[in-house]
Amino acid sequence: MNDYEQYISPFSTRYASREMQYLFSADMKFKTWRKLWIALAKGEQKLGLPVSGAQIAELEAHADDINYEVAEAREKECRHDVMSHVYAYGVQCPQAKGIIHLGATSCYVGDNTDLIIMREGLRLVRGKLIGVLGLLADFAGRYREMPALAYTHLQPAQLTTVGKRATLWMNELLYDLEEIEHRLEKLEMRGIKGTTGTQASFMELFEGDEEKVRALDRYVCEAMGFSASVAVSGQTYSRKVDYQVCSALSGVAQSAMKFSNDLRLLQNFKEMEEPFEAHQIGSSAMPYKRNPMRSERIGALARYVMTDALNPAFTAGTQWFERTLDDSANKRIAVAEAFLGVDAILNILLNVCDGLVVYPKVVEQRVRKELPFMATENIMMHAVKKGGDRQELHERLRQHSMAAARAVKEEGKENDLIDRVCADPAFGLSRGEAEALLKPERFVGRAPQQVSEFLKERIEPILSANPDCLGKKIELSV
């Protein structure tokens, strides 16, 4: 059967990066198993068990050259993945085969490896999140002062700036970054806990010496780069950890979907666009179209990741006592694909945010069409200062606004509210005075200052501390 005759995940062919795919590969998994077996043997030797230096050297010599064909043949016979790899490692390490996996249960390698892979996946996600923040920080700074329509209920409200809106996207991603970092900080190894979490096998090995059992647990954790192991467990670490991690990934997906939806709307308004390559085809039937395909893909993948977070929630809730095996098949798909999905989303975000296009004239035109309505309170206050009656002016403005709105909606005319007000002697407003009142920058409040403050106080410290996460270019597949 060739590649065209079997299902291959789009995460592998179209979406996820090679780095993230490798983390969930068989090679990463089984090489990590061997690292764990080596750490276990070294710890046991250090604490006085009969494990020789020669045995450890033999294990280290074959840490990476996994004899997959031997393991696969053995698994067909014994129907147990861990024991097949213990056997295969022993074939390569005849001196050490008797001490491989000594005192451990399958979850020693299985669960600890899952936690190690999730840690590395979170680190990769963290780096790409910072990369996106860096690109959006440049964008927000560049457009911090450009007035733009803001919306509530998707109806024109007061003005904001293009840069201020970008900080809203960034703030969502900043929450996600903080949550990812929290998960990384709190992630603990399962350690050496034994078959039901009681460490009974290790108590037997060390003849009841509790301190040596605790010391072995600490040694293995430190060897694998963890500061601690879980305080208590059954056979497995709590599957709630998978849920917490996938929830953090779901948060990234939510923020990305918010950004992509806003960008799709702005592209419809012709104010902004995602990048569009010179030879890109937007539609097979309509040659003129520039569809927001990348933003749409972000939305599609985000839905998948957000719903995928339900899988570990159900898995955590349906574990019986110290563990049941109905977690295994589900979690190896759900957790992996949550990471692959978010990795794909971040790749697209990096690509899109590196080439965002703004059309200032369209932004300004749309502001001008709505600004007269927004300026009515300023006009009224100006006229009151010249001796007008506020209540009378308010009613006249209401009538003029309704008439101008009807002309726009029913007759397709331009907004002529200012012409109507200037022609009304009750306001005593000249055209020059009206134009002065209608300067868009007068209606953006502190938006430009808020952008500067947000970038300086919240974003720049992160970017300065992580320069290696910035400036990466992403090319998308199809």
Count the helices. How many? 20
Query: Mean of residue pLDDT?
Result: 93
The largest β sheet comes out as: 2 strands, antiparallel
Q: What class do helices, strands and sheet pairing give?
A: mainly alpha
Q: Which regions contain 5 or more consecutive residues with pLDDT less than 50? A: 283-288
Q: Termini, distance in Å?
A: 25 Å
Descriptive overview:
There is one protein chain. The chain is mainly alpha-helical. The protein is 64% helix and 4% strand. The protein contains 20 helices and 4 strands. The strands form 2 sheets. The chain has a two-stranded antiparallel sheet. Strands 3-4 form a two-stranded antiparallel sheet. Strand 1 and strand 2 form a beta hairpin. Helix 3 packs antiparallel against helix 4, helix 3 packs across helix 7 and helix 11 packs antiparallel against helix 13. The longest helix has 37 residues. The protein is elongated and about 105 Å long.
Summarize the SSE layout with pairings.
Elements: H1 10-15, H2 18-23, H3 26-46, H4 53-61, H5 68-78, H6 81-92, H7 106-142, E1 147-152, E2 155-161, H8 162-186, H9 200-205, H10 210-223, H11 240-269, E3 272-273, H12 293-308, H13 310-317, H14 328-353, E4 357-358, H15 360-374, H16 376-385, H17 390-411, H18 417-423, H19 431-437, H20 447-465
Antiparallel strand pairs: 1-2, 3-4
Helix pairs in contact: 3-4, 3-7, 3-10, 5-6, 7-8, 7-14, 7-20, 8-11, 8-20, 11-12, 11-13, 11-14, 12-14, 16-17
